[in-house]
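> call design_seq(struct)
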């Protein structure tokens, strides 16, 4: 091995957080944080200028070059996307459906016209996602009609328009009306003192998994009576328990909770070997994640792997809202935790969904 080889393999801690890596300066995560901080401090005028630049670049065919900035501006500043949606529509860009959240009626009607006339199922799928983001009365009506009278593209899609609605954070109730699948309010997690509440991420549960024997982890403890978390409608202490080993193999883990901090796992299917030692699980309880003081935009968590409670999720794969195992109604999304924020070497994201009536929380995992 030459000297330069050994030099290039040298571990260099991040100058800000100490995370180990093989290059100088800030780590990937601290760089993202810096960029996000900059965007949060831009003046209103500068944000408007950036929106204009984004629109111009999209019209020039350079969507890819402004995509990251655009997503950050939506996430952190919840910018109005009406004119951006218009520019994307002109260029037939439908991949980032969130861009259409503030689409004008004219844009919406053009999307609907395309959906009714396309013979391409992939395009239909993208258009359904974009229309779901708009989700107004007219879109709901169109989705109902398309569900009752499917067009040819439906044969090649896996699910009905009513499931595409979930992409916009809503569903049809049994009576046909719209029901929200997400909370309008949102908080993020910041690094600080590991406090008892209102949020605690990762505590030893004391019990063992009935399926694999691994130490159970209370992945999230929430004090729902705290002012900052009132929007969750949980009047008490709620513990969300998982088996950190089985979560990788199960489609979802379901946890029955009481408002006094008791919780237990519902039946699990997997019979996998336990790969985690007591110390591995213990490490997941050493993070210093705590709840942000101020609320953030509803879209704060849609990009950059940010932990959030409330608001919209960043789905690594397709959006996925589960049905409650007891009442079978669709569950409401309420939090996401990115594994690498509690275990440096793990990847993927945990998504939390809730059925208030049955007091059941579902936790599922996605990774690339
Ligand atoms: Zn760092
Ligand atoms: Zn287990
Ligand atoms: Zn239920």
């Amino acid at each position: 091995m030459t000297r330069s080889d050994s030099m290039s393999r040298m571990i260099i801690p991040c100058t800000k957080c100490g995370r180990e890596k093989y290059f100088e300066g800030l780590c990937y995560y601290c760089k993202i944080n810096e960029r996000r901080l900059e965007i949060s401090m831009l003046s209103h005028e500068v944000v408007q200028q950036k929106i204009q630049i984004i629109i111009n670049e999209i019209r020039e065919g350079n969507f890819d070059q402004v995509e990251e900035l655009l997503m950050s501006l939506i996430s952190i500043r919840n910018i109005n996307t009406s004119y951006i949606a218009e520019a994307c529509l002109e260029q037939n860009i439908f991949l980032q459906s969130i861009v259409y959240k503030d689409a004008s009626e004219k844009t919406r009607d053009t999307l609907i016209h395309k959906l009714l006339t396309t013979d391409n199922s992939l395009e239909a799928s993208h258009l359904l996602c974009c229309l779901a983001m708009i989700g107004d009365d007219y879109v709901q009506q169109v989705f109902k009609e398309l569900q009752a009278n499917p067009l040819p593209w439906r044969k090649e899609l896996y699910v009905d328009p009513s499931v595409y609605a979930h992409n916009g954070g809503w569903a049809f109730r049994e009576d046909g009306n719209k029901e929200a699948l997400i909370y309008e309010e949102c908080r993020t997690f910041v690094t600080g003192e590991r406090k008892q509440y209102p949020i605690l991420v990762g505590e030893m549960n004391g019990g063992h998994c009935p399926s694999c024997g691994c130490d159970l982890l209370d992945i999230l403890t929430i004090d729902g009576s705290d002012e900052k978390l009132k929007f969750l409608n949980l009047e008490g202490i709620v513990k969300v328990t998982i088996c950190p080993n089985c979560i990788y193999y199960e489609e979802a883990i379901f946890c029955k909770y009481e408002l006094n901090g008791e919780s237990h796992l519902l039946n699990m299917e997997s019979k996998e070997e336990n790969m985690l030692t007591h110390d591995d699980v213990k490490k997941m309880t050493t993070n210093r994640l705590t709840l942000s003081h101020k609320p953030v935009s509803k879209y704060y968590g849609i990009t950059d792997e940010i932990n959030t409670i409330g608001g919209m999720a960043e789905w690594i794969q397709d959006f996925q809202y589960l049905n409650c195992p007891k009442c079978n109604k669709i569950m409401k999304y309420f939090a996401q935790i990115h594994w690498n924020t509690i275990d440096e070497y793990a990847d993927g994201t945990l998504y939390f969904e809730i059925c208030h009536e049955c007091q059941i929380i579902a936790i599922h995992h996605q990774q690339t």
